[in-house]
């Protein structure tokens, strides 16, 4: 198992991540935050999944209610993506 360097979770700023693999038709890898369960973009390549996670936009300037709204929208986007998920 390879060691990766993860950027903090964009959702909760947590630093405890793992790479999960799910196999349906293809084996898809995605980084998941152990603290809040946020899942990053899926990829057929594990390294690419980590890279995509590390490139996710982070909003250190948002706080309080503003941050909650950003997180709510991110969760909504995530939900929409999961409704139409095709491995790239
Ligand atoms: Zn998190």
Describe the overall structure.
The protein has two helices and two strands. The radius of gyration is 13 Å and the shape is globular. 33% of the residues lie in helices and 16% in strands. The chain has one domain (17-83). It has 88 residues and is of the alpha+beta class. The model has no long low-confidence stretch (mean pLDDT 86). The two termini are 23 Å apart. Strands 1-2 form a two-stranded antiparallel sheet. Strand 1 and strand 2 (27-33) form a beta hairpin. The site of zinc ion has 8 residues, from loops.
Describe the secondary structure blueprint for this structure.
Blueprint: E1 17-23, E2 27-33, H1 46-54, H2 64-83
Antiparallel strand pairs: 1-2
This protein binds zinc ion.
Notable features of this structure?
88 residues, alpha+beta, two-stranded antiparallel ribbon, 33% helix, 16% strand, globular, binds zinc ion
């Amino acid at each position: 198992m390879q060691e990766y360097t993860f950027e903090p979770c964009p959702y909760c700023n947590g630093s405890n991540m793992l790479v999960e693999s799910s196999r349906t038709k293809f084996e898809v890898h995605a980084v998941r935050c152990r603290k809040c369960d946020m899942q990053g973009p899926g990829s057929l390549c594990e390294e690419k999944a980590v890279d995509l996670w590390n490139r996710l936009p982070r909003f250190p300037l948002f706080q309080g209610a503003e941050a909650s709204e950003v997180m709510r929208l991110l969760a909504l986007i995530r939900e929409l993506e999961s409704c139409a998920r095709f491995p790239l």
